[in-house]
Design goal:
Two copies of one chain form a homodimer.
Chain A: H1 19-26, E1 33-34, H2 47-58, H3 63-66, H4 76-88, E2 98-101, H5 103-115, E3 121-124, H6 130-137, E4 142-145, H7 154-163, E5 168-173, H8 187-200, E6 203-207, H9 223-231, E7 239-244, E8 256-259, H10 262-276, H11 281-320, E9 326-327, E10 335-339, H12 346-357, E11 359-360, E12 362-363, E13 376-380, H13 386-407
Parallel strand pairs in A: 1-11, 3-4, 3-5, 5-6, 6-7
Antiparallel strand pairs in A: 2-8, 7-8, 9-10, 10-13, 12-13
């Protein structure tokens, strides 16, 4: 019998199953109200538009091309649409600044692969998107805390990274309605991160999958747009912007992108070539058609639904949460972050909550590289209707109240 | 301006553009007869079947599910079909032994990621599939030559790997109609590799994208089938079999698979989860439908076409190649491997050939990890019809004859 463990690379010891994805498998029971999965509501997908796009491509003269291998950088038609979308966000760029990826998760994997040697440092927020930690973990970096609210001296990060045997390669952050906190960085915080990255001569990874899902307030300019402004042109910037169609049109086609200086894009193209050759052309051509025709109207429709759910969840939290429980008020996205009174363990709470109240959420510890955050949890409002949100939060409030009381 | 080079990981220095894929971009000229691209003939894709499959899924009750995130191991329906296909090859397995990947290229990337630490050794054939070298390169291994025809003492490989600071993690090979040589390993050679791997306690990576394209002779049992037989059950084996739909039904959906012991599959699933979450469900569901209905008949049709092209190319080589030039006689697949007289550089020949004769091929050096093989080249017969093959090889024969003469 093969002793597999002895054959694995060192990095394999850092690969663990996502608590969230394992959870999702268990929650497929009709009587559980789940605020756990950070996924879009499938009822909202523009299935009809996709059906027509696939029929159009596969029934037309482009069928053979769509079923063949394609170029690693991505289909020109889709890259053109994405470049136009990015220009709409204040980033002057062309298709040469775009790499199409299999979801923005793949972009994070490739960015880790391109930049991180073992013992290098990645600056990340605490808590942060779990999938980013998982993607970067394969390249064995250290994680150091990035706090956009504080004026941290660069020299301190630099020294620590150097002592650990590497250097700071990038600052990773999700500036709009972040997963898991729902928080948005203001202009000053964004400028502070760019300035810190400048002092450290490192890159910035701007993960923006929720960017288009804003329900109130004015959009804040992307870090890449600010970077373009300061440095004069995209070719002079240090920011890699990761976008995604997963939260706007459909996650099922697995389509995302990186927008950055063409020099770094061309390196990422080499990585793409060696890792899966190319993202399916058929899906890219279908997405290009659907995005060209439906992006604006579909996103508007989606936002109206999610806004109502966010409002319902905020109202229900206000009504049903016991004293000492705090939560964020996201201006967009899919998530509300809850802080329980100290001493309450959200993972233990989940077991009680699913069993006694049939309500699910994600305990917050997994989002912290240092295993802190035991008293935090993530609620997603994207997949439950307003009625279920009110009922579910009421039930959750009772469970929390009981837990707090018995902990006293 | 950002100094990107100073930020890249050490592995980035090993990432180079594929000579072949760069070539392909230049060869899109109507008067060039290309034997360069190792890609299937797009005229043969079952577009109608795919059109119906996509319409069926997107017009039916499964649309929303197909457009949503999916499980990292792959859709159950497709894994069931694949497991059945593998059982047909003599490998007793179930869906738990299958990971669906974005083409078998992604399987190679994940296998490199799971097994290779820097300075570990991968045994590979010389020449070998360039894409495998590119995929593994990201994990900074050494390559050591694997010669299935020789009884090499394991202790020698082991000592060299150890001296280099790692160990032998796997033997990689493509046993059927290999890219680039077209050669097939016989039963004795396969058993020899399994036995070597046993002595080294390492894994075996069986890359079998062309397996179903046999035009003559009896199929040779896959290494995984032999391994199952010797070790009693798939759960006791050391072989990871990489399959692909790219050469049978379509490369455009980017669908391949790994078949192996469930213990190692579960590790690869974690890698998939962290690197791109999942392969598009929509494509997997479409492929399952097309494979269930059309695999056998479509592969039979494809084989008839490619067989005629292989026969035409072998006949044309016999007729037009000057003395001193040798080539393989593949029993299947897409490639014939040509050895030119010593001293002739195939890369230089390519320039002359494209310019003077409008015929293209791939110079063989890139397939050798040690940059040897300057006098070799790869011809692909999959994409040219019989008339073009005869005309192209006639033209190529003249160019080679002239080059040989002028080198004397």
């Amino acid at each position: 019998m093969t002793t597999w463990d002895s054959l694995y690379a060192r990095r394999a010891s850092r690969m663990r199953a996502s608590e969230i994805r394992e959870l999702l498998k268990l929650l497929d029971q009709p009587d559980v109200i789940s605020f756990a999965g950070g996924i879009p509501d499938p009822e909202l997908f523009p299935s009809e538009a996709f059906k027509n796009a696939y029929a159009d491509i596969l029934g037309g003269p482009e069928a053979a091309k769509a079923l063949q291998y394609g170029v690693s950088e991505g289909s020109l038609r889709l890259r053109r649409w994405i470049a136009g979308h990015m220009r709409g966000l204040g980033i002057d760029c062309g298709p040469e600044n775009i790499l199409v990826t299999s979801g923005s998760q793949q972009a994070l994997d490739y960015i880790g692969k391109l930049f991180l040697s073992a013992e290098d440092t990645a600056l990340v927020q605490w808590p942060t998107y779990l999938g980013a930690l998982q993607a970067f973990n394969a390249y064995e970096p250290r994680f150091e805390r990035l706090d956009p609210g504080a004026n941290r001296p660069a020299v301190d990060c630099e020294a620590k990274a150097h002592d650990a045997g590497g250097r700071v390669k990038f600052a990773y952050l999700s500036p709009d309605f972040a997963n898991p906190t729902g928080l948005t960085l203001d202009l000053e915080e964004r400028r502070r991160i760019l300035s810190l990255a400048g002092e450290l001569s490192c890159a910035v990874v701007e993960d923006a999958p929720y960017q288009c899902l804003r329900y109130e307030g004015d959009p804040v300019r992307p870090l890449l747009a600010l970077d373009c402004e300061t440095s004069g042109a995209i070719e002079n910037t240090r920011t890699l912007y990761c976008g995604s169609f997963s939260k706007s049109l459909s996650p099922g086609l697995r389509l995302g992108w990186v927008c950055a200086a063409s020099e770094v894009i061309s390196r990422l193209v080499l990585i793409k070539q060696a890792s899966d050759l190319n993202t399916p052309v058929l899906n890219q051509e279908a997405m290009a058609r659907v995005a060209e025709e439906h992006f604006e109207t579909h996103v508007a429709k989606t936002k109206a639904v999610y806004k109502a759910r966010r409002d319902a969840m905020l109202m229900a939290l206000e009504k049903h949460m016991p004293a000492g429980t705090r939560w964020t008020k996201p201006e967009g996205g899919m998530f509300i972050w809850v802080e329980l009174p100290d001493g309450i363990d959200a993972a233990e709470l989940l077991a009680t909550s699913v069993e006694a109240a049939r309500v699910a959420f994600v305990p917050g510890r997994a989002f912290h590289p240092d295993d802190s955050g035991a008293n935090t949890l993530r609620l997603s409002f994207s997949c439950a209707d307003v009625g279920k949100i009110e009922a579910g939060i009421a039930r959750l409030g009772k469970v929390i109240a009981r837990t707090v009381t018995s902990a006293l």
